[in-house]
Design brief:
- By secondary structure, this protein is an all-alpha fold.
- The protein has one domain.
- Helix 7 packs antiparallel against helix 11 and helix 8 runs antiparallel to helix 9.
- About 35% of the residues are buried.
- Pfam families: FA_desaturase.
- One of its GO terms (biological process) is lipid metabolic process.
């Protein structure tokens, strides 16, 4: 066996050892606690909608702005459970997916079918970081201008979602070519413009159509109410501003979630881990901009089956058990600014 083959075999053995050790150390953390899911979602959604109502009311401007900010953070946390829905095993938290769609997914025009069946591809070992990954772009090798442009474009999410559900969805029901385009290109929360989604089949197709129909009816009702003057313009604009703020916040978090340094070839398990970002304590701000376990994004790629509320304990166990030379700590970053600065520098260096 050649030296190169020896090195590859050794690397594969070390990676397999790391994965097995991580799985063994966190063996007791795989079961979600339904009470945590329900309480967290209820408090986040409740606070978010109460703050939104206050932001829409006739009070002092500074109170409306403060309430709008609280609404963005609280509803963003509630909406982030869409990520957990993709990883929850069937029946693990009974009724949670339906409740989330009724409380958050449909009202905010982000029903779970936009992510279910899409995000899972991002975790596939043969897809991560490649052209077939719906949630990956080689941002570190792209123009630095790509970063602010992507954030600005995210701000138009409310308009795009309204067009998608109030206009394109009903029209596509009677125009098959439009339906094909809508399914392939405009039915996934993805950042890779080359990604084309496969049409749903079986039970997934029925769930998709039900959720899409409900979101479409809601979007049409909002649009009709605004045109007829039944919904005050202030309410429409405030709601759109909150949704826009949530989308911008999520895009900024997305930019900080990875190093985006893949060369387009499939990465190993440790390669995926080290290309992703943890922002562990003691900082508390990540709990706001990367809620529901998203602050442990690298660890989530290593152990995707662990529910969000147990990732902190999983990180503590691995940090204590693994020696510094194992490389586990290399995915930890001090905060949002450091992750973004590194990405900007990498993009700037590639453009030079």
């Amino acid at each position: 066996m050649s030296t190169v083959q020896d090195d590859r075999a050794g690397q594969a053995a070390r990676e397999e050892s790391l994965v097995r050790l991580a799985a063994r150390l966190t063996l007791t953390l795989g079961a979600p606690r339904p009470a945590v899911f329900w309480l967290d979602l209820s408090l986040s959604a409740g606070l978010g909608y109460l703050a939104l109502a206050l932001a829409c009311s006739d009070v002092a401007v500074w109170i409306r702005l403060l309430a709008g900010g609280v609404s963005i953070l609280a509803l963003y946390r509630a909406e982030s459970f869409i990520h957990e829905l993709c990883h929850l095993k069937s029946g693990a938290v009974p009724g949670f997916a339906l409740a989330w769609n009724l409380a958050i997914g449909i009202p905010l025009l982000t029903p779970s079918f936009l992510y279910d069946g899409v995000h899972n591809l991002h975790h596939a070992r043969t897809r991560y970081g490649t052209a077939e990954d719906p949630e990956y772009l080689r941002l570190a090798a792209m123009s630095p201008w790509t970063l602010p442009v992507s954030v600005i474009m995210a701000g138009f999410a409310p308009v795009l979602l309204m067009v998608r559900f109030a206009l394109l969805a009903p029209v596509s029901a009677i125009v098959p070519p439009l339906r094909r385009i809508l399914v392939e290109r405009f039915s996934a929360l993805a950042i890779n413009p080359a990604f084309r989604r496969e049409p749903p089949r079986g039970p997934q197709r029925r769930r998709w159509l039900l959720l899409e129909s409900a979101a479409s009816a809601w979007a049409i009702a909002i649009l009709a109410g605004a045109i007829a003057g039944l919904i005050p313009l202030r309410v429409v604009l405030t709601g759109a501003a909150v949704l826009s703020g949530m989308a911008v916040l999520n895009q900024v978090r997305t930019l900080a979630a990875h190093l985006w340094e893949s060369d387009g070839e499939p990465l190993s398990v440790t390669g995926q881990y080290l290309d992703s970002v943890n922002v562990p304590p003691p900082g508390w701000l990540p709990a706001l901009w990367a809620p529901v376990g998203l602050r442990y994004h690298a660890l989530h790629h290593l152990l995707p089956g662990i529910p969000y509320h147990r990732l902190g304990e999983a990180h503590r166990r691995l940090t204590s058990a693994l020696p510094p030379g194992a490389g586990f700590e290399r995915a930890d970053h001090p905060g949002l600014a450091s992750a973004l600065i590194r990405l900007v520098r990498a993009a700037g260096g590639s453009a030079a």
